[in-house]
Structure formats: C-alpha cells, structure tokens
Amino acid sequence: MRLQKFLAFALLAAPLSFVLAFPTSSCGQDQSAESKEVDEEPVEVDAGIHSLPDRILQLVKEGKPAEAAKILETAMESDVVAEPLKAFHQTIATGFVRARKYDKAMEQFGAAVEFELARTDSPSAAVQLSSLIQQVNIYGLHAVEPEMVSDWSDQAIEKVRALEAEYPIEIQTALSSLIRTRASMLAREDEDSAKEMLAKQVAALEAIVDTDERSEDVYVALISLLTTQARMFEDADGQDRVAVTVEQALEAYPDSQAVLSLYASNEYSVISGLARVDPDEASERMEAAIAKLTPYEEMKRVELTLRRIKSLESRIESTRKQLEMIGQPAPPLDIDGWANADGISVEDLEGKVVLYDFWAIWCGPCIATFPHLREFREEFGEQGFEVVGITRYYGYTWDEESGKAVNGSDDPTPEEEREAIAKFLQSKDMKHPTIVTPKETELQSNYGVTGIPHAVLVDREGNVQMIKVGSGQANADALHAKIKELLGEAS
User: What pLDDT, on the 0 to 100 scale, is given for residue 80?
Assistant: First the structure.
C-alpha cells in the first residue's frame, strides 16, 4: 500500500506543469448536451490513477467540465490519490468559465484557492497563488461573487505577507501582483482605498530599491505597480514616475529584458491612447520609444512590442486627418446601394444633422453601439436628425432557419448581401438606413477610418463637427451632447 501511494505521488507530480500551461479563453461558446452536468451515473476510477490527469484534461478540452469535475470528486474519495491532483480544480474551473457556468467555476476556483493557500510556504508557491487570484479577476468572476473573490484575495495577501519576514525581498513579486489585482477589484467601489493600497506597496518597494538589497525583480514589481497607478487613475504625473523608475532600473540592470519589456508595453499603451487625441505628442513619444528600444530589438519580447509601437503610425496619421476634417465639408459619399432603406436618397439628408456610423456585421463593438444609435434616433429624429450606417460587402447572406447572418462558401450577389444586412439590422430593432460602398472605394480612407465603429457627426450645412472611434459610454455621451448642441443652434 505504501508503495502504491508513492507511485501515485510520483505519477501525479508531473501534470502540474500541464495545468499551468493548459490554454484558457475568455470567449464563451454555445454549449451542447455534452457539456451539461453529469449526475446520472457514478464515475469509477478504474483506468489507473496515473491516467486521471490525461482524462481530466481531455474532458475539459472537449468542453465537458462537469464530467471532469465528477471524476475528480470521485478520485478525491480514494486514499491512493496524491495531493497534486487537487491542482486540477483550477483547470476544471476554466472549463466551466468557457461553458459560462460561473457558479460551478466558483466552486472549483474555491477548491483551487484552498489548495494553493495550504501549500504556499515559499516565494515560488506564492507566485502560483498570485497567478490563480489574477486568473479569477481576469475572468471577471469578481463581478459574479464580489465578496467571495475579495475574501480569497485578502486571504492570499495575508498568507504571502506572513512569508515577508523570512523572504523580505524574494516575496515582493508575488505580493505586488496580489496587491495590484486586489486594488483593481477595490477601485470599482472604493477608489481612495485602492489608491492607498497601491501607494503603500509602492513606498515599500521604493524603500528597497534605495538600498543594496534591491534586485531586478523588485524593480520589475515597482514598475508594474507604478504603471497600474498611472493607468487606473489616469495620472499624468504617474507616467513620469514610471519613466524615471525605468531609467533607474536600466542603469542598474542595463540588459534586463523584463524591464525593457515593461517599458515597451507601457509606451505602447500610452502612445495608443495619445494617438486618438494628440497625434503630435504621440509621434514625439513614439520616436523616443523607438530610439530607446531599437538597440535591444534582438530580444524577442522587445522586438514584438516595438513592432506594435511602429504600427501605431497609421493611427496617428488617421487622427491627424480626422482633426483636419473638423469644420470642413464632409467628403462626398460613394454608394453602391442602400440597405434597410425605403426609397431614401442623399438628397433626403440635406439640411439634417447626420451621424455616419462606419460599421460591419461581424464587429462586436459596432453592435454594442446599436442601443445608443437607436436612442439618438428616437430622441432627435423629429428634430431633423438621422443616423446613416456605412459598411462594405463581406460576403454575408441571411439564414432564415437560424435567423442569423452567415458568412459561408456562397458568393452572394450585392442585392443578396444588402438584403442580409437589412434583415440583420431589423433583427436588432435598428431602423436607420445603411449605405453599402462599392468593393473598390476610398470612402473609408477619406473619412480617416482605421478602426470601427467610427462615428462622424455632420451638421446641417454638411460640415464635420465630431469624430469618435470605438464603443463605450464616454463616446456615446459626447456624441449625444454634440447632437443636442447642433440641433439647438439650428432651432
């Protein structure tokens, strides 16, 4: 019996790496009958203990987390099952997330947290615990069970802090990660407390880097926290602190790929944001980032982010074009046909405030703007306002049986695709007309479109007054206020 237990432990120790490497996804899929809970038949552990990890992984991969959970539950009742098998709670939890069974996911994550808390007795184990808590937050489960996830996070922080006396420097990576994750949860309901939590850990790390005890990992943790502060609270001064700390870290560790990667990632994020509002500052910052990172482009992680930074040039130029368009006549429309329109023409738009919505049938963020477009039209339609969609041909047809637009092997005629677009809009209760441009057109380019949804607001005289890119409440509020202003000025 003792030999059997020893062999079970040896065979189960290896799959831990598989658990950590198992792919996860934030996208849910429609579930088949195979993914429903399996309660009818008991699951027998009869294929040898060593085969359980493979069976669990395969079931999760096949979208059957309930079956995997049943196998694990049954296995736990056996006294020959080694402790590392408990690590598969985390794998099964990700399967339930993909199946959108969040209550079951929470049960499995809870068991995983309990397992990791019990075995967290070193910096490396603390890193695994912090990774687990971060995963729960990434999946958005804090919104499902906020008190439970917050409690897990607080327990993890307390557990890791208890190791700080023994590992004052080594533990900072895991501790900082946990605090960063917890602060992001807390900021949704108590921004001041989140700021205070981050500030205390930043101060602790800054105190360490001012001593001979500093390390590359501490610098990395500090830069990560400063970056989180700057982004979470839109702190312009915070970006300056990030830059200063990066310089200090590179002085101490000039070839640190981790520091350079953090710097590159942060610069990409900042430049990406500036590209939509201040192209000149974005260009200046891009040039500085390229100059700093180019000497290290042989580092794979740096090279990949450097390429992403360079790719922002087209967005910057697009924003320049958009800003130049404000107050100028809107470019002429290029129309191959209309969809969801009954006898409308360009002439019917003259003298109206018009919101041109560049979108696509496959674009999720575009569809997310539909409620706002509907509300605009309902509120302002009788005051001389109209929404006009603008899209391209993408090869879609309408499937009457499923009531969905499909992109299959058929090559629909323009008339068939315009009909599909109209039925798609009608299925979403959208009544505004939509222009479909010719396959060869410069209309999108003329309006500075590099991403969709792309909204262009034109006044009664046909001049562009506002351009907003992307979905979200902030853009919707800005467009609503501008529509109201333009209609009010003309009344």
Answer: 56
